[in-house]
Structures are given as C-alpha cells and as structure tokens.
Write a structure and sequence with these properties.
It contains ten helices and 16 strands. By secondary structure, it is of the alpha/beta class. It is globular and about 75 Å long. The strands form four sheets. A five-stranded mixed β-sheet has the order 3-2-1-6-11. Strands 14-13-12-15-16 form a five-stranded mixed β-sheet, sandwiched between helices. It has helices at 51-69, 103-120, 164-176, 187-198, 235-246, 250-259, 287-307, 332-345, 359-372, 388-397, and strands at 7-12, 16-24, 30-39, 43-44, 47-48, 75-80, 86-95, 124-136, 139-141, 152-163, 180-186, 205-210, 215-221, 224-231, 321-326, 350-353. A hairpin with a 3-residue loop joins strand 1 and strand 2 (16-24).
C-alpha cells in the first residue's frame, strides 16, 4: 500500500459530513479504503451558518483519520449535495464568413461568456462549465467543429454556480486544516457521469431520486449537467394521504403496502384483509381505493417535479430517458408500476429503474474526473498580459 496514492474526499450532504479515503490499486482500479460519517452541524438551508462549528467538526475528524492512518493529507476533493447550486445556460456566436472554426474562436466565446457570468452573478462563483451544444450553420455538431468551414458558429455553455460566501467559507475552513481544495464537485454532476458511463447510449436524461421525506431531480443534456432541484416530499407524502383519506394509522398502511402490489386490476369487491388491522376494528376498505389514492398523488408528484415544472420549460421537449432511483425499497414494489405508468403516459419517456449509486462507484467517477477531467467540461483560458519588454523580445526573437 503506497500511502502517497491516497486521495481524500469529503462529501457534505443534507444530513452528514462523510469522509472517504480512496486509492488506485495495482490494476489502476479505484477502491474506497475508509469511510466515516458524522452528523451535519453548522450548516442549514444551504448556508454555512457557523464557520467555527463546521471547522471544529471537520478539523477534529481529519485529525482522527490522519492519526488512524499515520498519514498527513495535503489536498482534499469536496463533493457538495446541499448548497443549492444555480444553473445558467448562455449561447455565444462567431461570424465566420466561410472561414474555419478555430480554437481561438471557441476560447473567445468561452472567456466572453464566463466574464459575463462573473459580472452578473457577483455573489456567486462558477464551479463547472460545460460545452453543452454547438451548431455550425444551424446544424448541430456532435463534437467541437474545429477546422470545419462555415458562415456562422453557435456555442452553448452551461454554468453551475454556488454562493460565493459559502465557497470562501469552505476554502477558509480547509485552509485552517492545512488542506488545499483540489476540486469541488456538485454531486449530481458526479452521479450523472457515473450513469452516462454505465449507460453509453444515454447522454441526455433525467435522474429522479425519491427518498422517504425528500426527492431530487437533475437533468443531463449532451453529457452536461444543466439543472437540479430538491423537493421536500417523498414516499411518505403518499402514506400520509392514505392515512388521512381512509382513516388508518400510518403503520397499518405501511404493513398493508409491504404485503400487496398495487394494481389497476383490483375488483370492486377486493377488500383489505382483516389480518392487517392488528386486532383493531375491521372496516371494509377497497384495495382499488388504495391504488387510486397512490395514483392521484404520484400523478401530482410527476407534474410538480417534471411535467409542469416551470424551471424545466426551456429544455427541449424531445423524448428522454428517466432514471428512477427509489431509495425507500419498502414501497418500491407496490409503487413501481404507478411511477412507470404516470411518468411515461404524459410523453414517450423511457423509464429505467436503477439502484442507488454506491459510495464506491460514485467516488470512482469522482476520481476519474479529478485525474482525467470530463469530455464536456470546459476550462476558460486567459492569456497573461505581456510587458512592453516581453513584447519587444518576442518581436526580435520570435
């Protein structure tokens, strides 16, 4: 084991700080050597409220890990899942008049749009820039059309930003821990890369994750993260609706749902069996009613998250794949058909149910991004200003 190959990751999500140590083995496969989770404190509602609390928590655990491994880290990769990023899509263009698309044309567009973002979003900092789409004479190109001839070139960039105060606070916190931040990733970007790598034919898709009390959607287009949104509801909202309408304790409803698979084929005289009532007064409740309540609520969820979500209206309306990750497996079986029916009946979307991406797989994708970058990620390039003497020497000596 070569400790110099260790990589230190810190994930900050809605509930926890998670500390990971990973390394590449002799076959260059990434593996997680260590994972340690502590409850989140000092951060609430996507804001760092108390820098000292966050610093003390992180510093204490870094010391513990370094002491345990007998190794001092110098760099850290941060993965954020609770800082409410902002997403902006901008398009730049270049008139070519029959000439070639040059690298300098693309660099100019990239730097110009990045400067515009910096001027407009003065309270935010750019974390990711993606080369989302490019057109040459109104024809969409798969790859950057460097070297091709045309009259008009259009280039769309997608920006992911976070609050500048939070960014500065994180930098200050890890500086005090003697750690240089090597990279900050939005977790949705890392998960999107993982899904794209595992499903090679899907470069444009929605990912919907539904937990017990919360949900999230993010949108990947042409292998670029373009949007994400969190929702304060999950499978529990369906259970509460059932409890309210049919006047049954939520625990009884959970027991029922664990044993039956909801279906539109229930007969009118198909009632919930008495054994589920736990010796309480039995009432005839139609299984079909349970199904209809779930259908109505999931239909509403589909509208809020996707079909009537005003934040997604600017994305094209072509059919897309939806990757569903239902973390609450207790109700996966009984709600699966309803989710699939509801999210596909309003369009020709392809529904795929997937398992949650494991920590190991997520970090493996992050490790590739750290070391090799991403095919769609763009990096601004600013030429340094040359002094008069430097320009003179360049003129004389070339």
């Amino acid at each position: 084991m070569n400790k110099s190959d260790f990589t230190f990751y810190v994930e900050i999500n809605e509930f926890d700080y998670i500390f990971y140590i990973g390394e590449n083995d002799e076959q260059k496969n990434f593996k997680v050597l260590y994972e340690y989770k502590v409850p989140l404190n000092g951060i609430k509602n996507s804001q760092i409220l108390d820098v000292n609390i966050v610093l003390n928590t992180i510093e204490k655990n870094i010391y513990f890990i370094e002491h345990k491994l007998n190794y001092t880290f110098k760099e850290v990769v941060i993965i954020l899942d609770n800082f409410n990023p902002t997403f902006i899509n901008l398009t730049g263009f270049k008139r070519l008049n029959g000439s070639q698309v040059l690298k300098e044309n693309i660099t100019y567009i990239l730097n110009t749009l990045k400067s515009s973002i910096d001027q407009i979003e003065i309270k935010k900092v750019v974390l990711h820039i993606f080369n989302s789409r490019f057109f040459l004479d109104k024809k969409e190109m798969i790859n950057l059309p460097i070297g091709l001839f045309g009259d008009f070139y259009t280039h769309e960039l997608s920006f992911t930003l976070m609050c500048k105060n939070n960014y500065k606070s994180l930098k200050r916190i890890f500086d005090k821990c003697n750690l240089k931040i090597r990279k900050i990733f939005i977790k949705s970007f890392v998960l999107g890369v993982n899904i794209s790598d595992r499903h090679k034919n899907n470069t444009t898709f929605f990912h919907i994750k539904i937990n017990e009390n919360s949900s999230k959607i993010f949108y990947f287009e042409n292998n670029s993260l373009k949007y994400e949104q969190n929702f304060e509801f999950g499978t529990n909202i369906i259970i509460k609706d059932m409890s309210k309408i049919i006047s049954l304790n939520t625990e009884v409803i959970k027991t029922i749902l664990d044993k039956i698979e909801l279906s539109s084929n229930f007969a009118e005289d198909d009632f919930i069996e008495e054994k589920f009532f736990n010796n309480k007064v039995y009432r005839k409740i139609k299984k079909k009613l349970i199904y209809e309540i779930a259908l109505a609520r999931i239909n509403e969820i589909s509208d809020i998250m996707l079909f009537k979500n005003i934040n997604l209206r600017y994305f094209d309306k072509l059919p897309k794949t939806i990757f569903f990750d239902i973390e609450d497996k207790t109700y996966f079986k009984c709600f699966k058909k309803i989710y699939k029916t509801t999210f596909s009946m309003k369009g020709t979307n392809v529904i795929n149910f997937i398992n949650s991406v494991s920590s190991a797989d997520m970090l493996s994708s992050a490790n590739k991004l750290v070391n090799f970058g991403w095919k769609k990620e763009a990096i601004p390039f600013f030429k340094s200003k040359k002094s008069l003497i430097a320009k003179l020497f360049e003129t004389i000596f070339g």
